[in-house]
Amino acid sequence: xxxxxxxxxxxxxxxxxxxxxxxxxxxxxxxxxxxxxxxxxxxxxxxxxxxxxxxxxxxxxxxxxxxxxxxxxxxxxxxxxxxxxxxxxxxxxxxxxxxxxxxxxxxxxxxxxxxxxxxxxxxxxxxxxxxxxxxxxxxxxxxxxxxxxxxxxxxxxxxxxxxxxxxxxxxxxxxxxxxxxxxxxxxxxxxxxxxxxxxxxxxxxxxxxxxxxxxxxxxxxxxxxxxxxxxxxxxxxxxxxxxxxxxxxxxxxxxxxxxxxxxxxxxxxxxxxxxxxxxxxxxxxxxxxxxxxxxxxxxxxxxxxxxxxxxxxxxxxxxxxxxxxxxx
Amino acid sequence: xxxxxxxxxxxxxxxxxxxxxxxxxxxxxxxxxxxxxxxxxxxxxxxxxxxxxxxxxxxxxxxxxxxxxxxxxxxxxxxxxxxxxxxxxxxxxxxxxxxxxxxxxxxxxxxxxxxxxxxxxxxxxxxxxxxxxxxxxxxxxxxxxxxxxxxxxxxxxxxxxxxxxxxxxxxxxxxxxxxxxxxxxxxxxxxxxxxxxxxxxxxxxxxxxxxxxxxxxxxxxxxxxxxxxxxxxxxxxxxxxxxxxxxxxxxxxxxxx
Lengths: 328, 257
Fold this sequence. Notes:
The structure holds 2 protein chains of 2 kinds.
Chain A: H1 2-32, E1 39-46, E2 57-60, E3 63-75, E4 78-86, E5 98-103, E6 110-115, E7 128-130, H2 138-168, H3 170-177, H4 180-215, H5 218-225, H6 227-266, H7 271-277, H8 279-308, H9 313-327
Parallel strand pairs in A: 1-7, 2-6
Antiparallel strand pairs in A: 1-4, 2-3, 3-4, 5-6
Helix pairs in contact in A: 4-5, 6-7
Chain B: H1 2-30, H2 36-46, H3 51-76, H4 82-120, H5 123-129, H6 134-172, H7 177-187, H8 190-216, H9 221-253
């Protein structure tokens, strides 16, 4: 009798364990399907739901928030999706939140994604119709991939042609096979490095000059910063201006003078014209010059004769002695 | 030709006899007096005593299923879907059917042999003579026990099998128990659990009624007892698959698949 009672207790535990597991499982599944919780009903309209069915998950910013209650055809271009969302999400989902249909992974089930809008709006209410947006689905992705594949094919073809040309280019292969290029390149790089160092030094020197000039050191600095020099420069520039004006006047006068001379030259009978253009006068002058040259030669002979004359010879000797004394 | 006619006649006879036997069960089941004590004893023997065997097979089933599915899912890069596939496979089909087959092997043969030996040793006749209703005492209690205990065994077997699946995932990979349970609960819906649980009542009923029929109508002495036990297992296993096929068709028609 006692054994039967123990057996009955064991049986009771066994049956209860099974029933508890069943009930808990059903409750958890029901809770996941929003059958027992406090939910709010919202709607969204799409042109194409892409296989979305009753029971698919609804996520708000990636968090499980509810599921799809029904998918109904409103007209030939509109499909209305009703969703049950847990009421604890109500304050966070606003009337302007976007509803989109996505995928759970690449090959997973369809899922409704509710995303927030940065523009402020009131929280959703029962039976609200939310705006929708279209996310890139598998078909769109495949279409994009197809375009990418085409582009890759074109690029690879071009690349093939380029490589073919490179392979057939003797100049390039000569260049690549030339072993001296590397040493030349190394030398060039060394020179470039040296030049860079020099440029750096020059830049540094220029920098020093600029700094000195800025601080008023040196001629340039004085020019730029010394107010006395600036004043002097200003005066000098004034004088230059004045001189320039005077020069203008002088040039004008010279111009009139030259003009007068030119008039004199061009006027027949004038002194200048006669001197410059009268050939008879020129001949007379030439004869006169010849006569003077002859006279001078005769005078020179006379003077040489005087040096050897006993009356005047003493005078010339005294002159030479005085000259030698002066040279010592 | 004559042999074929005899076989088909024997098949129809058998079918009719089982149907009458089933009708008799409902007739006796609805009539008082209820053999509660015997019913509880049978529940204990049929349900509680079968738990270790069913639990062990369920655990191995979950573990092996996971380890077999894993390489294929890894090849497709959907290893994360392993809990979904394991849970759906176990809860919808493998759990109820395998549990029912093990149950048929253990309990169907046991009932067939027990009632068969009682028949050939004329204990059932003695009960009739003494005024006790043997059908009510022996058949109704056993059929009710198998009908009610198999669903509970299946639920426990599913739970143990899912735990085996969790261990199977963690042999080669890493997944927390919380994540595993979440994945399972996110995958499984009422339309998976309810039809699978309802069909186990039919499986249990089939195992009980066939076992009792074969044992109750056992003939030809001790040889007949063995034959009853054997044919009870074979026929109840076949019926399990037929019922499963019918239930799948019905759930498909109802849009629950």
